[in-house]
Amino acid sequence: MVKVTFFNGDTKQITADQRVIYYYADAQTIHITYPDGMEVLHFPNNQTEKHFPDGRKEITFPDQTVKSLFPDGREESVLTDGTIIQVNPDGTKEIHFNTGQKEIHTADYKRREYPDGTVKTVYNDGRQETRYPNGQLRIKDKDGNITLDNMNASTPLCCIAFVTQLHFFARYRCQLLIGAVV
Q1: Which of 24, 27, 22 shows the shortest CA–CA distance to 39?
Q2: Are residues 50 and 136 in the same domain?
Q3: pTM value?
Q4: 126 in a domain, yes or no?
Q5: Domain assignment present for 161
Q6: Angle at the Cα of 95 (from 114 to 98), degrees rounded to 5?
Q7: Angle CA 54–17–6, to nearest 5
Q8: Do 69 and 132 share a domain, yes or no?
Q9: What are the residue boundaries of the Centromere protein J C-terminal domain, all occurrences included (predicted)?
Q10: What is the pLDDT of residues 126-169, one digit of tens each?
Q11: By the 8 A CB rule, do 84 and 99 touch?
């Protein structure tokens, strides 16, 4: 083993198995380079980074969250509760929660998929669309007003029209009451 100590307190060791261990005194950081090209950095806050020869990087944060960076621009983080966050080079993001729920973020919308099959999508303009496992589709405008609610796939159209009219009249009556007070 060869060890060199520098005037600034840094040290460099070359071990018998050809690892190079460099200690940065000011930063209190250890940088290990392995013969196969892999590099590992240990920081004083207990963060560890691994740089693989294929260009991949893996960062383990002090809370044990692990983030992997891939040469093609993808990122994947595994949180301590088991949640997995994947970010693609195009900016889309998928979040897999430990509850079985999945969330997808794109430039146009955010979508949450539930284990029971329910899918809720919120668009950038504020519109919301919820699809239920029984076939029901509910659409709300940006203000949260229901613009479509087909109840379920077997609901007769007359019932859908009735519910839509009830919603309209309830909203209209509320506006009239508010207007009368003002």
Answers
A1: 22
A2: yes
A3: 0.74
A4: yes
A5: no
A6: 65
A7: 90
A8: yes
A9: 35-63, 71-105, 110-139
A10: 999 999 999 999 999 999 999 999 875 454 544 545 444 545 44
A11: no
Q: Is 135 left (phi over 0), alpha (psi -120 to 50) or beta?
A: left
Query: 121, 130, 123: which is closest to 149 by C-alpha?
Result: 130
The number of CA neighbours under 13 Å toward the Cβ of 170 is: 8
Looking at the structure, do residues 69 and 139 belong to the same domain, yes or no? Answer: yes
User: How many Å apart are CA 133 and CA 35, to the nearest integer?
Assistant: 55
User: How many distinct helices (H) and strands (E) make up the chain?
Assistant: 1, 17
* 37 lies in the same domain as 82: no
CB 129 within 8 A of CB 144: no
Cα–Cα distance for residue pair 131/142, rounded to 1 Å: 17
48 has a pLDDT exceeding 60? yes
For residues 121 and 104, give the distance between their C-alpha atoms in angstroms, rounded to a whole number: 9
Q: Please check whether residue 148 is in contact with residue 163, taking contact to mean a CB–CB distance below 8 angstroms.
A: no
pLDDT in tens, 54-75: 999 999 999 999 999 999 999 9
- What is residue 158's three-state secondary structure? helix
What mean pLDDT is reported for the chain? 88
Residue pair 43/31 in contact by the 8 Å Cβ criterion:
no
* 8 within some domain: yes
* Size of the chain, expressed as the number of residues it contains: 182
